[in-house]
Amino acid sequence: MTMTHQVGTSPAITTRRRRSPERRRPQDLLFLIPFGLVLVVIVFPVVWMFYSSLRPAQEISQGITAQTVFSGLSLDSYARLFDETNFGRYLPNSIIVCGIGTVITVVVATLAGFALSRFSFRAKPLVMIILVATQLLPFVVLITPVYLFFAELRLLNSFAGLIIVYVAITTPLATLLMTGFLNSVPKTLDEAARIDGASTLTVITRVIAPLVWPGIVTVAVTAFIAMWDEFLFAQVFLTSESLKTVQVGIAGLFGEYGTDWGVVMAASVLAALPTIVLFSLLQRRLVAGMTAGAVKE
Questions:
Q1: Which of 35, 53, 77, 142 has CB 3.0 to 4.6 Å from 265, enough for a Cys bridge?
Q2: Among 134, 156, 175, 131, which Cα is nearest to 233's?
Q3: Residue 273 and residue 268: Cα distance in Å, rounded?
Q4: Which domain of life does the protein's organism represent (predicted)?
Q5: What pLDDT digit, counting tens, does each position of 180-191 carry?
Q6: HEC profile of 159-187
Q7: What CA–CA distance (Å, rounded) separates 283 from 76?
């Protein structure tokens, strides 16, 4: 009864609550307008790429009018992409290389991050500095020495060589990320599991991994996207047509005297699909991993 009286005799509060959205509207627009502009700048090229892949090839470079905006749309560019090029082989190649490389990176980064998070040793500060320093080094300067070294090991023009390079490139950042996630897990959980007789591997797989699962997803998605977008090493290391990845295959679609822009746009749409699907499926885990440790209770 008391609660009903308080609610019923508070017209000022009710009026303030009803008016508060109107009062906040100008302030909201101050933030929403720049956000909308940024969103348009990001989304428009993707929409234009997909729309151009459906237009007739001879009309892509022409202007669009209200009468021609939806005329002649078809999947002809996609059909020519698979009929006239080896793009159908490039997609599985990229998925194999990036999939295996991502799994290896996640496993190595988890184990290395656990060591940096849980163990104390004299060279630990130096190891952290080296991991950070690798992110400041442009990878283009590594191509020549790595190429010569892999030539001696007969790893050129093979998936194994490219996977090793991708794992070496993505592991330092993945290790730093995993170390941060693992630091958020109390060490008392490790000690309790060890008292019960658990080994280090059991602690990682059955105690730690379920708690830092959003972090593992974040590392996996970050590594996969970095490998999927990589072009330079794949272009230099893979010379066989049957081993080329998607990014190298798209570069080969640009001709010296002319380019079929419909085919290029169709290939670009298909190349973007795996990362879009992966992000859509794991977005909740990814956001949770990015915000993990941001708030302490």
A1: 53
A2: 156
A3: 9
A4: Bacteria
A5: 889 988 888 888
A6: HHHHHHHHHHHHHHHHHHHHHHHHHCCCH
A7: 32
